[in-house]
């Protein structure tokens, strides 16, 4: 399993807009991707992270070639929500688990 972490800065005071974009556009996209096992969104005062879990390297690598993903990313850039560079890190899963239902 591969963990992909996409991170970026975001515009001050716009976290509610970023969360809405993630719920409306990103979550449905990742849910429909073959091989995407889970998707979580996190943030602190300055940085947003989209953390996805993938079946294998082929599945995670297919994301960058998806026209839908490229459109979503272009729309996100055009929204002026992002600050600074976007970074992607791919990590090998080493263990752990989900211990109960997540709050909504």
From the structure above, extract its key features.
alpha+beta, Alpha-Beta Plaits, 3 helices, 4 strands
Helix content percent band: 25-40%
Instruction: Classify the secondary structure makeup into a structural class.
Output: alpha+beta
The N- and C-terminal alpha carbons lie at a distance of 25 Å
* Biggest pleated-sheet summary: 4 strands, antiparallel
How big a fraction of the residues is strand? 25-35%
DSSP strand tally:
4
- Which spans of ≥5 residues are poorly predicted at pLDDT below 50? none
User: What is the top-level CATH class?
Assistant: Alpha Beta
The CATH architecture assignment turns out to be 2-Layer Sandwich
**The CATH topology is what?**
Alpha-Beta Plaits
Shape descriptor: globular
Summarize the helix and strand pattern as letters: EHEEHHE
In which order are the strands of the major sheet placed? 2-3-1-4
Number of domains: 1
Describe this structure in words.
The protein has 104 residues and is α+β, with helices and mostly antiparallel strands. It has one domain (2-92): Alpha-Beta Plaits (2-Layer Sandwich), CATH 3.30.70. Helices cover 34% and strands 35% of the residues. The chain is built from 3 helices and 4 strands, in the order E-H-E-E-H-H-E. It has helices at residues 15-31, 57-62, 67-78, and strands spanning 2-10, 36-43, 47-54, 82-92. Strands 2-3-1-4 form a 4-stranded antiparallel beta sheet. A hairpin with a 3-residue loop joins strand 2 and strand 3 (47-54). Helix 1 (15-31) packs antiparallel against helix 3 (67-78). The longest helix has 17 residues, at 15-31. It is globular. The two termini are 25 Å apart. 12% of the residues are buried. The mean pLDDT is 94.
């Amino acid at each position: 399993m591969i963990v992909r972490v996409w991170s970026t800065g975001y515009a001050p005071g716009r976290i509610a807009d970023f969360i809405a974009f993630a719920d409306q556009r990103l979550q449905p996209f990742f849910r429909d991707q073959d091989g995407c096992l889970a998707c979580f969104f996190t943030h602190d005062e300055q940085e947003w992270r989209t953390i996805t879990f993938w079946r294998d390297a082929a599945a995670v690598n297919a994301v960058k070639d998806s026209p839908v993903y490229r459109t979503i990313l272009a729309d996100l850039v055009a929204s002026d929500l992002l600050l600074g560079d976007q970074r992607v890190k791919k990590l090998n899963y080493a263990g752990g688990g989900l211990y109960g239902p997540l709050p909504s």
